[in-house]
Design brief:
Helices cover 9% and strands 40% of the residues. The chain is mostly beta strands.
Length: 176
């Protein structure tokens, strides 16, 4: 009876590398040119740079971009008053604002925390300019705040500000 041998299936162990590299133990290794940038990079440097930039606050530490007033637009109403709610949308770091209406102080100093403080603002006929003036920048630059405007219980606008001390965020309410 003839003997049948099974076919040999290829194996990983049977595959030879394309080039066999043999080293002569008597050969001296070539000296590499020292290049500090390529050879000894610190992998943490990339993350350290990102973290340091994030610690600078909004604007990556560029204080100049917050040294300006911000204007949020004009709104019309026939109501005798509006509700304005304010809060700090970022870290609660001690931000304070003053609120004026047509240049007259209506709230001297409001501490911004994580929950909205709702303020009732009476309106005169015609133009009513409402300003949030940054009294400080808290412990984390800049002064960050969020506000929303409600008319007859409906939110008609909401926005956030980033201000340096002394600058304002404003909008105009036109009472018809």
């Amino acid at each position: 009876m003839p003997t049948i041998t099974p076919e040999k299936a290829p194996s990983l162990w049977d595959i030879k590398p394309k080039e066999e590299v043999t080293t002569n133990p008597w050969d001296k290794p070539k000296e590499r040119e020292f290049n500090q940038q390529d050879d000894f990079l610190n992998p943490a440097d990339r993350y350290t740079k990102k973290m340091n930039n994030s610690l600078k606050g909004e604007g990556n530490g560029d204080y100049k971009i917050f040294r300006r007033n911000q204007y949020f637009g004009d709104f019309k109403t026939d109501s005798e008053s509006i509700e304005v709610a304010v809060r700090d949308p970022q870290a609660i770091d001690g931000d304070y604002v003053k609120i004026t209406q047509d240049g007259v102080v209506i709230y001297e100093s409001i501490f911004l925390n994580s929950t909205f403080k709702t303020l009732q603002i009476p309106l005169k006929k015609g133009f009513n300019r409402i300003e949030f003036i940054a009294l400080n920048e808290g412990s984390s630059f800049p002064n960050t705040g969020a506000f929303l405007i409600r008319d007859k219980g409906q939110t008609i606008y909401q926005e956030e500000w980033n201000l340096s001390t002394g600058f304002n965020a404003a909008f105009l309410i036109i009472r018809e």
